[in-house]
Specification:
Length: about 110
């Protein structure tokens, strides 16, 4: 089975490149079926989208290197927790954040 997105040129390419096995190979054209391949480069796309807001890659790197741990602190892997555990974890994390940032000013 071959899974591709809905680009129309895939079917003729399959006929041209695999004529001897064409009748034995199923070709599914569906946007969501190829998630494994599509999601493999999702982190790269996310980084590119984030970097578009910065004037230079160096400035983006400086900001993201500091912001990454903060983001991780407030975005735990939600699927690993029950609702009660997640709620308690987030309360603890906000308490820690408030203790760390209390009285601090940006310099």
């Amino acid at each position: 089975m071959i899974v591709t997105d809905k680009l129309a040129s895939y079917a003729p390419a399959k006929r041209e490149n695999m004529p001897s096995v064409e009748h034995r190979v199923e070709h599914r054209q569906h946007k969501g079926l190829n998630n494994r391949a599509e999601n493999s480069h999702q982190p790269t796309r996310q980084r590119e989208r984030t970097m578009r807001r910065f004037p230079s890659p160096g400035q983006a790197q400086r900001f993201l290197s500091a912001f990454g741990p903060i983001l991780d602190h407030f975005r735990p892997k939600r699927h690993r927790f029950t609702a009660e555990d997640y709620h308690a974890l987030m309360q603890d994390r906000f308490l820690v954040w408030n203790e760390v940032t209390r009285g601090k000013t940006a310099t």
